[in-house]
Amino acid sequence: MAASDHHFLHLPGHHLLYGRVPKAANSSVKAALTRLIRPELQRNRHGLGQRLLRALQPHRSWQSLSSQVDQFWDLLPSSIARPVDRATARQLRAHCFSFAVVRNPFDRLLSAYNNKVIENPSCTARLRAIGVERGMALPQFIERLCAADSAALDVHVLPQAEILCLDAEPLPTWVAYAESLELHWPFLVQRARRAGVPGLMRQLPDKNSRRQGQSTDLEQLLAQPQLVQLLRQRYVDDFSFFYPWLLEGNLTVAQVRQGGPRRPRHFVPAQ
């Protein structure tokens, strides 16, 4: 994801606003949104302008890209989808069904570490800029993140509160939890339909969920109180807004992944 404040996706034709949190079911939600706008994509694909663009300037066409990459959404006509910043999202939310998905900061951090530092052949430029190297041990990785300013962080490790909140206020009306998404997603689909946004898939596609059932690294992290404390400080607003029950005390894997509230959190905009 680009290093910008355009963390929200606005689908004007559907009056829908989605807060994109990398490593929190973001790939699955984008797949569902792609299905939602499929008729518009088909019409645009066969239009003369898009055919000429693909033939003459293919790098400016969305057609050769996966919807999992941010450039796909950047290149779509703004009448179909447009990335917007938090200030714009705040203006739009009164007219849209708005939602996001969050994930406990421990699993989200480990997912980013395994993908961006261990698995990928090289780290992103923003991670390298704060001193992260490929294959770096987890304690050193966490220390680099905690020493860096938020403005310097790669979005995959940026605090979720800095993605979804503005002036200490969560912007999405509904915030679902990745740990409970099997229950939370159908609730969101139902609420969206009531709000005049039909067409969302009843079952969320399972994309990039490689950490399901994996707990060894989380157990090892939770067994190191100094690292847990560093992460509680780095992601204090994430814990305060979305996971307050994880802010204190010794934790087990079961406690971290217990799923939070029975249904998505409902945030009423401040007057």
Describe the structure.
The chain is of the alpha/beta class and 271 residues long. It has one domain. Helix content is 44%, strand content 10%. The protein is built from 14 helices and 8 strands. It has a 6-stranded mixed β-sheet with strand order 3-1-2-4-7-8. Strand 1 and strand 2 form a beta hairpin. 37% of the residues are buried.
Short description:
The chain has 271 residues and is α/β, with parallel strands linked by helices. The chain is built from 14 helices and 8 strands. The chain is globular.
Notable characteristics:
alpha/beta, globular, 271 residues, two-stranded antiparallel ribbon
The sequence of SSEs as H and E is EEHHHHEHEHHHHEEEHHHHHE
Reported for the largest beta sheet, the result is:
6 strands, mixed
Number of domains: 1
Care to count the β-strands? 8
Order of strands across the widest beta sheet? 3-1-2-4-7-8
Runs with pLDDT <50, length 5+?
A: none
The secondary structure category is alpha/beta
Distance between the termini: 32 Å
Mean pLDDT: 91
| Alpha plus pi helix count | 14
Cα radius of gyration in angstroms:
19 Å
Helix fraction by DSSP (H/I, runs of at least 4): 40-55%
* Approximate strand percentage: 5-15%
Shape estimate: globular
Q: What's the SSE blueprint?
A:
Blueprint: E1 8-11, E2 16-19, H1 26-36, H2 38-45, H3 48-56, H4 70-75, E3 82-84, H5 86-92, E4 97-102, H6 105-119, H7 125-129, H8 138-147, H9 160-164, E5 165-166, E6 169-170, E7 174-177, H10 181-194, H11 216-222, H12 225-234, H13 236-242, H14 253-256, E8 265-266
Parallel strand pairs: 2-4, 4-7
Antiparallel strand pairs: 1-2, 1-3, 5-6, 7-8
Helix pairs in contact: 8-12
